[in-house]
């Protein structure tokens, strides 16, 4: 595997569970989206308040996977959390009414709270509603623990992978001293520089997030989703997130996005609060053109595979996608057409 971010680490873990030999090559010094991710799992998203793609299958698989990893690694990383989403206008209210009447949404929506009822610290002229089955996963903690465990077992190589040194050798691929039957690229947004997959339908998007503290703001433990979201942590700090930008793909945090997040937080809160920023993080989400994962075999080079396109939803999608890719690699099970990387072939770019 190339790339020890969320996708690479979880795939390596699944292969280890299946008793398969592997080597994970990745660099701790290279940027990774997982290092800055809040790890939020949100079953209802977007302007249209729709259930996230495939959430009935993805969410239980994710919880089972993180719970198993918690037990194995002695970590506490998976945190279910009630979510409150604020209606922004009368159209949101109409849409919510339709969703609340729809039996398909009964497992993910709780109820509507009129203005002032559920979250007194927030401006909520149109009220808000509860979302069930939300959670956040401490992804950086998980990935650091997995890299260390693999390293101790001699299964992780902390280095930057040089594509020019990967050469076919009969039915295998050679990389320096390593000979492998299969090479699986899990490089996140850096895959746009992978010479073996030049046509990959990636559409990366930069995100920035702030870790904050306020001496005057103490919020009950809930995920608050106004125009941006606010996630309180048990130590009294909280996170603001996240921005979205497809035009700037630099890894550096910007003053403009910091101001955007702080302005959104102050606008969401009823009273002004002093907010101290303790960390400002930026990363590139490996999104795809249709916002679905991208995975499967190279169209013409046997032995090369890819897992990417987890976008802004890696926490919920990576467990199921790695399970599916593992079954493909080890038992030849077909890749679901919706996530097969070949689905964009012969499709013109917009
Ligand atoms: C600000 C922000 C907030 C986010 N919040 C959430 C959230 O709340 N919930 C959620 O589900 N998702 C969130 N995400 C998205 C999440 O981070 C991604 O879905 C996930 O990290 C994708 O995993 P990945 O392994 O494909 O990519 P990455 O996590 O980026 O990992 C790729 C790895 O490959 C390595 N690599 C690449 N090329 C090479 C090479 N040549 N040699 C060695 N190593 C290489 C990289 O260094 C990196 O370590 C957020 C992202 C950002 C930027």
TrEMBL record:
Transmembrane segments: none annotated. PANTHER family: SARCOSINE DEHYDROGENASE-RELATED (PTHR13847). The keyword Oxidoreductase applies. The keyword Aminoacyl-tRNA synthetase does not apply. This is FAD-dependent oxidoreductase. Its EC number is 1.-.-.-. It comes from the Bacteria. SUPFAM superfamilies: FAD-linked reductases, C-terminal domain, FAD/NAD(P)-binding domain. Residues 2-323 form the FAD dependent oxidoreductase domain. It is an enzyme of class 1 (oxidoreductase). Pfam families: DAO. GO terms for molecular function: oxidoreductase activity. Keywords: Oxidoreductase. InterPro entries: FAD-dep_OxRdtase, FAD/NAD-bd_sf.
